[in-house]
Amino acid sequence: MKKLYLTPAILIFSLFLFQSCSKESKSPVIPPAYPSVINAAIAPNQTYLFNISSAGNVNIEKQASHFKVSKTGTDEKNGQLVYQYIPAQDYSGKDEVVLSSKVIVYSGGSTSGCSSSHVNDNTPATGYTTTYTTIRFTVAN
Q1: Nearest by Cα to 50 from 40, 60, 61, 59
Q2: Which of 6, 20, 71, 95 is 20 to 30 A off residue 28, Cα-Cα?
Q3: Coil, strand, or helix at residue 56?
Q4: Is 95 a residue whose pLDDT tops 50?
Q5: At residue 66, does pLDDT exceed 60?
Q6: Prediction pTM value
Q7: What is the dihedral of CA 63, 69, 74, 79, to 10 degrees?
Q8: 68-95 residues labelled b (16+ CB within 10 A) or e (exposed)
């Protein structure tokens, strides 16, 4: 009977003994940033362009429901990454899209506790965080 209690106790003690503490996370994933919400009002059949400030991969996490065009791409005029939305033909009402982008986090950045806002070319990336942007459309005259 004592062996039944002894084995789990040794296992639990071993877990606490071999657990390590470190300032730096071993995981390359950092929890998602607080989502930003943009309310946009456009007229039916008009185009909405949203300039995406972060470089890298931008994905549509939740596609709009009533669209003719809903995509990310590069603006031909200035080369900046943009999201483009055109509502479905003659649609009036509400619509919503959720964009996500992965942002690289450096050990010299704010996630490590360093107050420096610059990133040295020699500073290694410590992981990434995902940011979310929700755009809520009101399509009306």
Answers
A1: 40
A2: 71
A3: coil
A4: yes
A5: yes
A6: 0.63
A7: -130
A8: eebebeeeeeeeebbbebbbbeebeeeb
